[in-house]
Write a structure and sequence with these properties.
Layout: H1 3-22, H2 28-34, H3 40-72, H4 76-95, H5 113-122, H6 125-139, H7 144-170, H8 172-213
Helix pairs in contact: 1-6, 1-7, 2-8, 3-5, 3-6, 3-7, 4-6, 4-8, 6-7
Length: about 210
């Protein structure tokens, strides 16, 4: 495995997968509805806190994912297949515009940064599945230098995806006014299709792992 392959798979690939699964633009309506009565400063704080929480959840999933798998005796192949199915189902709902229950979350005071924005809004089951999927691939790298490099690149991808979500939330009012509902709908469906592709890729990788371990 070369450095170019590492960057392509664990930085660019992970960043694309995480941006698609988190779908920053789709979080704008929920963020606006949850912070309608907040001041500009309060909304900025909620956006920052939500992204910090979400980033923390993804980092913990990346670092501790393999430990959890070992505790429950779950193979890497099984995790990838299951994660791929979850990711593909999320993409299917986005593609066919199924109703997202997180958008119906009710506001309870100002404590919305963690729930429902960070969890399950930004770092939902699909996001966690993607991150753990990459952690299983990193665990299978035999060369420790490449393994640490892959881990660092994936962490950078998490930071990049979190920044994309933060920018979308900070510019939420302006973006929603400029795009309009039709453009938001098209982008959501497009990202849903890309997400299905990511899920199928994980399923294929998991099946290949099962096959080679026989």
């Amino acid at each position: 495995m070369s450095i170019t392959q590492l960057v392509s798979q664990y930085l660019l690939g992970a960043l694309l997968s995480l941006v698609v699964i988190t779908n920053p633009l789709s979080k704008i309506p929920m963020f606006i509805s949850l912070t309608t009565h907040d001041s500009r400063t309060q909304r900025a704080r909620v956006a920052l806190d939500a992204c910090l929480y979400a980033g923390g959840i993804m980092v913990v999933s990346l670092v501790g994912g393999n430990v959890v798998l070992e505790m429950f005796g779950i193979s890497y192949g099984a995790l990838r297949v299951a994660g791929g199915i979850v990711v593909a189902l999320v993409g299917y709902r986005m593609l066919y515009h199924s109703q997202d229950t997180t958008s119906q979350a009710t506001r309870e005071g100002h404590q919305v940064a963690f729930f429902p924005l960070a969890m399950p809004g930004i770092s939902g089951p699909g996001t966690i599945a993607v991150v753990i999927g990459f952690s299983t691939e990193i665990a299978e790298i035999s060369n420790w230098n490449f393994k640490l490099a892959a881990l660092g690149l994936t962490l950078l991808a998490i930071v990049g995806a979190t920044l994309c979500v933060w920018l979308a939330l900070r510019l939420s009012s302006r973006i929603s006014e400029q795009l309009g509902p039709s453009a938001m709908d098209v982008l959501t469906r497009l990202m849903g299709f890309l997400l299905i592709c990511v899920g199928v890729q994980f399923i294929g990788s998991g099946v290949r792992t099962f096959y080679t371990s026989l």
